[in-house]
Amino acid sequence: MNKKLITAFYLILNIFFSIVIVLLNKWLYVHIGFPNITLSMIHFVITFIGLIICEKFDVFCIKDIAIKEMFFIAMAFCGFVVLTNLSLAHNTVGTYQVAKMLTTPCVIIMQMIVYNKHFSILVKLTLIPIILGVVINFYYDIQFNIIGTVYATMGVLVTSLYQVMVNIKQKEFQMDPMQLLYYQAPLSAVMLFFIVPFLEPIEQTFARSWSLIDIAMVILSGGSLIFHETLAINQVIGITLTLVGIILYAHVKMKDTQMVVSDCEDKERKPLHKV
User: Is residue 59 predicted with pLDDT exceeding 80?
Assistant: First the structure.
C-alpha cells in the first residue's frame, strides 16, 4: 500500500480518537462529575498497558534508563494532563481547544529566553494571529469564567514546559516518544495514586453507575450538541485567526527545516580541497 495513504489513514485515525477523547472527558465532567485526577490516573494506566502491548509486538524497544532521570518529566506530565483536563471541565470545548494552541508560541518564547534559541522573523509573525485569535475567543466566550481561564493558562505553561523537557530528554537519551512514555506513564500514575485519596475520596468517584449507552452518547455527539455550547461570531473569528496562525506556523517551520536540510546536503556534496 502507498506510504502516503497509510500516513493519511493514521492521521485521520489520530484526529478521530483525539476528538472522541475530548468529548468523552467533557461528558464525564458535565454529566457524571467524574473526578479529574482519578481520570488522569486511569489515563496513565491504560496508556502504559497499551505501551506494554505495543512493545510485545515489536512496535518499539525498551531502553534501560534510571527512574530518577524521569522523575521531573513525570511530574510535568502529571501537571500537563491534570491541568488541561481541569481546563476542559471549566471551559467550553471550543475555548479549551483554542487555549491549547497557545502552547506553540509559549514553547517558542521559552526556548528563546531559556535556551537562547533563534527563530526566523516569519515564524515570529505567525504567532500574532495565534495569540490574537485566542484572546478574542476568550474575551467573547459567553461561558467565560475566571477559574477556567486560570486553569487554561496554567495548563498552557505546564504543557509548554513539558514539551521542552521532552525534547531535551529525547536528545539526551536518544529515545523516541514511545520509549519515553513507557517510563513516564507508570511513574505519573503512581504519583497521582498517592494524591487521589486526599483530594478525591473514593465515594465521590463511584457515586453513580454508568451504562454503555452513556459512553456511546459521547462518541455519537459533538460538543455543541451535548453541552449546548453556542459560539458568538467574534469567537468564530478568534478560532479562525488561531487556526490560520497555526497553519502558517507549520508551513513556515517546514520551509525553514527544508532549507536547513538542503544547506547541509549542499555542504556534504562540496569536494574537499587538497592542501
Answer: yes
